[in-house]
Amino acid sequence: MDLPIDLKRCDISLNGDLDPGRNIPVVPKSHEGVLTERELVDHKDQRVKFSSWLLNFGKSPDKDKGYSEYTVYSDAYRMAKFDKWVWIEGDGYRYPPDEVSNVRESWIDTDNAVLRIPKQESSKNVGNWTVSLTERTATAVERWKDEHQLYGRYTNSHLLWLTSQGNPYRSKSLRWLLHQLCDEAGVETGNRSMSWYTIRHSVGTLMTKERDLAVTKSQLRHKAPKTTMKYNQVPVEDHRDALDKMG
């Protein structure tokens, strides 16, 4: 994908308020080499939708009133700069949970209790990803692989799970599912932040406590060790106990 990309290049009509030669950036030249081709495509689509919303509704959604092109122009550059900082200093580019919606039966190795995601389907697209599963999860998936064949919506699908309407799971349906599970389990969600990322963070914290940062880094697929450090919330007493055991 050739950079930079602006809204005019994405066939978004503007009012012409900007000075000639100025275009609202979608993906600036500075992002070159930071994202993979797949990440660029996904990021571009998100930015086009967001910029269009700002122009048409951002200032007052109830009145269908958007921001001026000059405002969106300047904000777009600031957001692009912030995005790049997050990707470099943080854990790289974040996708919606593609692996969840695209997981195939062939990815699950229940005999060895692992999930193997091919590089071409991996959201970070940096190599094949093998992640451990608990024996309990592997058993549940094995049973589901037998059961889901009884439902008509899976007849022509290789996906491991679909919504009740026969669609792949997306962010909204996954969020709804999580809250349904919390309600069924009696977990109060009204006064707490509950998301799949929250669960991921909890898994990382507990795994660090039970094992070490290296295992957590591999399981969560972090590029930089400093990203994994935020999961090191092990109490001081546990560190002291470990030192005592070492003599």
Brief digest:
By secondary structure, this protein is mostly helical.
Could you please describe the fold and organization of this structure?
- With 247 residues, the chain is mostly helical.
- It is 45% helix and 6% strand.
- The protein contains nine helices and five strands.
- The protein has a three-stranded antiparallel beta sheet with strand order 3-4-5.
- A hairpin with a 4-residue loop joins strand 3 (108-109) and strand 4.
- Helix 6 packs antiparallel against helix 7.
Primary descriptors:
247 residues; hpI Integrase, Chain A; 2 domains; 3-stranded antiparallel β-sheet; two-stranded antiparallel sheet
